[in-house]
Amino acid sequence: MTLTLFYILAGIIVASALLVVTVRNLFHCALALALTMFGISGIYLYLGWEFLAAVQVLIYVGAVTVLIIFGIMLTRRVMDDKARVMNNQVLLSFLAAIAVMFILFMVVGNSSFQYTNHAPVVSAAQSTETSSAASSATVAYTDEVAALAAGLLRPQNGFAFAFEFVSVLLLSALVGAVVVARKDPA
Amino acid sequence: MTEVPVVHFLYLAAVLFGIGLFGVLVRKNAISVLMGIELMLNAVNINYLAFAKYWGNGNLTGPVFVVFVITIAAAEAAVALAIVISIYRQLKSANVDDAHNLRG
Q1: Cβ-defined contact of B27 to A56 (cutoff 8 Å)
Q2: Is residue A86 part of a domain?
């Protein structure tokens, strides 16, 4: 049953991702991208990361897709149907993508994950009672959001500086996007 | 809920990464290239979360990295779209092949 659910989700993701890269109309591409992101957030839910699934829907479906649709509308002349949407290296790109996929399949197929019957962790937060405090990022919180916040911000995990740095990055990306997209360069 | 082996998630992520790579390599429009990059980043996120769930033992490094990847992908999308709009204003085209002013 759950395997069927996974295959349905994977089918939605792969089919809509193929639509994203092949459909002529850019607007339809953006809608297919939104569907792909919904499917991926379904995968997150399936794995038990509820908060990250919500973040995925909020940021990708809510923000990034809308941003991309705005970008498409602001560069509207590229939406005419006569122009070719793909460049003249389709075969080469297809071979390259297939090669990368094949190598990844080989690596996964030959890895030990296949054969090791590792007991799946029911929940990252719940399992901390059984696991020792060997890893530095292990935290003993009972719900996902608190555990994630502790994983980000506890100084001994080493991500606190990166967290602050990412906030600076967001600010500079905001300012940079405004400056780059301005009509008259100052 | 976890009767699906972890390799299934890895295969799904590999397929998604390949599709995204194909999109990046083959599309002419810069916004389509951006969409391909988003697909590739999300394939990586699936790997992170699958491994964190099956092998993490409560280690939250994977989900923390997913948060960073999502944040940086959002910032990247904003800056990239600003660049695309700026290029479109200059060249009246959003094709990556037309933006060859820096070619020597």
Answers
A1: no
A2: no
Average pLDDT per consecutive 10 residues, chain A (186 residues; last block may be shorter): 88 95 90 95 92 94 92 75 75 93 91 60 46 46 81 85 93 93 72
A contacts of B5 (beta carbons < 8 Å): 113-114
Q: Any residues with CB less than 8 A from the CB of A22 and at least 6 apart, and which?
A: none
Is the residue at A165 inside a domain?
yes
Asked whether residue A95 is domain-assigned, the answer is no
Whether residue A139 sits in one domain with residue A73: no
Instruction: Please name the member of A48, A159, A183 whose beta carbon is closest to the beta carbon of B53.
Output: A48
Output the pLDDT for position A128: 46
CB contact under 8 A, B94 and A78: yes
Q: At what angle do helices B6-26 and A2-22 cross, to 10 degrees?
A: 10
Q: Model's pTM, two decimal places?
A: 0.85
Name the fold adopted by B6-91: Helix Hairpins (1.10.287)
Cα-only R_g, chain A: 21
- The per-residue pLDDT for B91 is 84
Does any domain span residue A59? yes
Could you say which residues from 92 to 151 on chain A have a Cβ atom under 8 Å away from some Cβ of chain B? 92-94, 96-98, 100-101, 104-105, 108-109, 111, 113-114, 118, 120-122, 124-125, 127-128, 131, 135, 137-139, 147-148, 150-151
Determine, for residues A55 and B67 on separate chains, whether the beta-carbon distance falls below 8 Å: yes
What does residue A86 show for φ and ψ, rounded to 5 degrees?
A: -115, 150
Q: Which structural domain range is residue A47 located in?
A: 1-80
Q: Which pLDDT score, from 0 to 100, does residue A146 have?
A: 86
> Distance of CA A66 to CAs A62, A69, A83, B17, Å?
6, 5, 24, 22
Report CB contact under 8 Å: B75, A169. yes
| Cβ-defined contact of B42 to A30 (cutoff 8 Å) | no
Dihedral of CA atoms A44, A3, A37, B31 in degrees, nearest 10, equals 130
